[in-house]
Design goal:
By secondary structure, this protein is mainly beta. It has a domain of about 110 residues: Sandwich (Immunoglobulin-like), CATH 2.60.40.3340. The strands form two sheets. A five-stranded antiparallel sheet has the order 1-2-3-7-6, with no helix packed on it. Strands 5-4-8-9 form a four-stranded antiparallel sheet. A hairpin with a 4-residue loop joins strand 4 and strand 5. The protein is elongated and about 75 Å long. About 15% of the residues have low confidence.
Length: about 160
């Protein structure tokens, strides 16, 4: 086969290779030309929240959702457990709400294949298990609080997961 006849096959192979690695688990931590590690994509990402116990977000309906604990801390690749505390505008614990957590990777346009499990603990505290983050990159964890006779309220915590 001539070189010009091979071009379509080479192009198809290159496209297939790029497509198959679009959601790969590698990150951006190569070396610079000086031989020192390059700054990771997570270190440069300005959209992320910096994890601290007690990190709080306000809903549009004046609820406060605090991320009190994460195991591991900060959240990392694979399975995570989180503890949230929900309080009303007066700072009183919100019990009896239905809480859901939805992991989503905005840069890749997909979520996680594992649905988190929420357990109400009382005193406005909700434990969330099985927060599965299968790959490195920016993950948005949307916490939805649904109370009887009130519209659902959302907040989002964004964490950049290293590889």
């Amino acid at each position: 086969m001539t070189r010009s006849a091979l071009r379509p096959y080479v192009l198809a192979l290159a496209v297939a290779t790029v497509a198959s690695t679009a959601c790969s688990s590698s990150d951006d931590t190569g070396s610079s030309s000086g031989g020192t590690p390059a700054t990771s994509a997570c270190a440069r990402d300005t959209r992320k929240d910096i994890y601290t116990a007690g990190l709080a977000k306000q809903t549009s309906g004046a609820l406060s959702v605090k991320l009190m604990d994460a195991t591991p801390a900060p959240p990392a690749k694979q399975s995570n457990a989180l503890t949230f505390v929900v309080t009303d505008a007066a700072g009183k614990p919100v019990d009896g709400a239905t809480l859901s957590v939805t992991p989503f990777m905005p840069d890749h346009g997909h979520g996680s294949s594992v649905k988190p499990t929420v357990t109400p603990m009382g005193g406005g505290t909700y434990d969330v298990a099985n927060v599965y983050l299968p790959m490195p990159g920016l993950w948005r964890l949307t916490v939805t609080v649904q109370m009887p006779n009130v519209a659902a309220q959302d907040v989002a915590f964004s964490f950049c997961i290293e590889g």
